[in-house]
Amino acid sequence: MKTTYREAMRAALRDAMQRDDRVFLMGEDVGRYGGSFAVSLGLLEEFGPERIRDTPLSESGFVGAGIGSALGGMRPVVEIMTVNFSLLALDQIINNAATLLHMSGGQFNVPIVIRMTTGAGRQLGAQHSHSLEGWYAHIPGLRILAPATLADARGMLWTALQDPDPVLIFEHGSLYNVAGELDDDAGAVDIDKAAVLRHGDGLTLVTYGGTLPMVLEAANRLAGEDIDADVIDLRTLRPLDAHTVVDSVARTHRAVVVDEGWRSGSISAEIAARICEQAFFDLDAPVERVCSLEVPVPYAKHLEQAALPSVERVMAAARRAVGANG
Amino acid sequence: MTSLKKQGVADAEHALHLLRQMLRVRRLEEKCIELYSAAKIRGFLHVYIGEEAVAAGVMETLAPGDAVVATYREHGHALLRGVSAGAILAEMYGHAEGCCRGRGGSMHLFDAATRFYGGNAIVAGGLPLAVGLALADRMAGRQRVTVCFFGEGAVAEGEFHESMNLAALWQLPVLFCCENNLYAMGTALGRSESQTDIALKAAGYEIPAWAVDGMDVLAVEEAARRAVEAVRSGGGPHFLELRTYRFRAHSMFDPELYREKSEVAQWMERDPISLLQGSMQAAGQLAEKDWTDLQADVAAEISTAVGFAENGTLEPVSELGRFVYSDRPDDGSAGSGGGPGHGETTGKGGAAR
Ligand SMILES: Cc1ncc(C[n+]2csc(CCOP(=O)(O)OP(=O)(O)O)c2C)c(N)n1
C-alpha cells in the first residue's frame, strides 16, 4: 500500500489505541488542532478527549504527569512538539523517568513513550531546528529510537509500548511527507538491531533518522563511481547496536558516520570511538564524520543548507575514506 | 474543630496511636543523626524533627491503595506509610536489605507494596508525578487518592504551577500537602515569594485550600480527613498548607546561620509530641505507665531496626548494572539485557584490546 511517514505514524497510534485501553496520547495540540505535524489528525474524533488529551503549554508538567500515569499503570504516549521544547522537561525525563527504576531498586518501571520531532532543513531558525537525540542517548535508563523508514514509523511505536522502560522516539521533521510502499500487514518491528539497508564492500556509511535518505542517495551516486557502500541505519541510538557497525567495518575497512547533530561530543563521536575500540586493526583509513557545522542552525536557506550534512559532503567524505589508502 | 486547644481528646486510644506514630518518627531520626555522627550512614541526611504531626496526621487518613509522593525529607513519610524502620535504615546503610537495595539512600526511599513513590531530591520534581498517578486512577476509574508532600520552597518552581493548573484543569484526585516550615535551606519564605500566603496561591488555581496548624496533629488529621474524603468522592484536587517548623538544621552540613536560636526555641515550645502528650495528660488520658510503655516499645522497634540494618549485606558489585533497564528474561543477549554491560557491545574487534 502507498503511504507516508506521517500516515504510518498515525496508523501506529491508532493501532496501539485499539489494542490496549491503557494507551493514550497526550501533548500540546494533539487533539483539536490535529497535532502540530498533523500526525494525530482525526484521532480525537475516533478516540475522544480522554485518550487524545490536549495539554496546556507546560512541558515539564505534562511529561511528568505522563511518567506518573505510567507508574500508575497506564501506557502513555506523550508528544512534545519538538526536541527544543523537551529541554523544559529535562528534569522529568532525566531525573525521574530514567532513574526511578534504578533508585527504587527495581520496584518502579516507567513504561512511557515520549515522541518528538527533531532536526533542521525547513528554515525554522535555531530554536526549532536542533538535533539533540544524541544528548538523550547519553542517559542510562532511556531507550532512544529514530525511525527513518516507513516500516519503522509504522512499527516502532508498538514495540516501544511493550517495553517496560521509558522510550524516546525522535521523528525528523523532514520525513513526515516521505511517501512510499509499505506492506499491508506491516506491524511491530524489532528495536534492538541496526539495519543494513544496502550492501557493498567499498565502505560503511552509518547514519540514522533524517539523514538516511541523503545517505542512500549518496550511496547510489557513489555506486556510479564504483564505490559500493554498506548503508547502516542505526535505528536505535541507545542501546547502540555496535555489532552491526563493527561487522560491516571489518569487511569494508572504511567508515563514514553521518549525523545531523554537532560533531563535538555527538553520537557520531561515540560511534567512531566504538569503531576504534572494536575494529581498529580492521581500518584502512581514518573514520570520517559528516556532521552539522558547529553553529546554531541559521534561518537563511543558503546558510542553513551550508550548515547541514548534504549528499555532496557525504560523497566527498566517502571518496576521502576510499582514497586514503586505496 | 477538634484540636489540642480543646482540653482532652475525644478518643484517647486514637490519640495514643498518633502519639506513638510521631514518636516513632522522632526516635528513628534521632537514631539516624547518631548513626550519621558515627559514620555508619553517609550522604545527605535531612531530618523531619519538629514536623512529625504533618506526616502522622495525613497518613492516618489514607487507604491502603492510595499513593504517596514525598521529598528528600521523607523518612517519616515512609515509616508511617508502612515501610519498616529496618528497611529504611538498611537503605541508609547502603545494604541490599534496604527498601531500594542500596540504590536510593536517605533521599530516595521507595516502596511498591505501600505505593510509596519517593523520595525525590529535585525540589518540586514529585508534583507532576503525583498529577500523573492521579490521572491514571481517574482514567482507570479507581477511587484512589494520591497525596503529594513538598516544602514551601517548591512553590517557587514552575513545576508547582504547572501541576496545580493540570490537576485543577482535569479535576484529578490529588491532595497537595505543602509543609511550610518557613525556610528553604537558608531562604526565608518572605525572601523568595512575592505572595507568602501559599493556600491563597493554590486557591488561585481554583483548588480548595486551607492553612492548618501543622504542630497540632489532631488538626492536621481532621483537615486531611475532610480533604481526602472530598478528593476521593470526586471533588478534584485539594490543598493543605501545613504550618510547621523544623527544629534541626536543614541537613547535617548546615551551620544554621540564617535564623535566630530564640526563634527555634520559641517553636520548640510547640513541639507536636509534647503538645499532644501534655493535653492527654491534662485530661487524664495518658497514665505515667502508658507513656513509659510507649517509649519502651518505640525504643525496642528502633533498636531491632538498627540491628537489622547493621547485620545487612552488601549488594554484590556484580549487580551494579541492574535496574538501569528492566530485566528481560526472554533475551539474554547484549544490547537489551540488564547486566552491567548494557548498551555495550564487544564486537569482533574485542581482540584489539
Ligand atoms: C530543583 C532543585 N534546586 C535546588 C535544590 C537544592 N535544595 C535542596 S533542599 C532545598 C530547599 C527546599 O526547601 P523546601 O522545599 O521548603 O523543603 P524543606 O527542606 O524545608 O523541607 C534546596 C534549594 C534541589 N534539591 N532541587
What order do the helices and strands come in, and which of them pair?
The complex is a heterodimer of chains A (326) and B (353).
Chain A: E1 2-4, H1 5-19, E2 23-27, H2 43-47, E3 52-54, H3 59-71, E4 75-82, H4 83-86, H5 90-97, H6 100-103, E5 113-118, H7 133-136, E6 143-145, H8 150-162, E7 167-172, E8 179-181, E9 195-198, E10 203-207, H9 212-223, E11 229-233, E12 236-238, H10 242-252, E13 255-262, H11 267-279, E14 288-292, H12 301-307, H13 311-324
Parallel strand pairs in A: 2-3, 2-4, 4-5, 5-7, 6-7, 10-11, 10-13, 13-14
Antiparallel strand pairs in A: 1-8, 6-12, 9-11
Chain B: H1 12-37, H2 52-59, E1 67-69, H3 75-81, H4 85-92, H5 126-140, E2 146-151, H6 158-169, E3 174-180, E4 183-184, E5 187-188, H7 198-203, E6 209-213, H8 217-232, E7 238-243, H9 261-268, H10 272-282, H11 288-310
Parallel strand pairs in B: 1-2, 2-3, 3-7, 6-7
Antiparallel strand pairs in B: 4-5
Thiamine diphosphate binds at residues 73, 121-123, 151-154, 179, 181, 183-185, 250 of chain B.
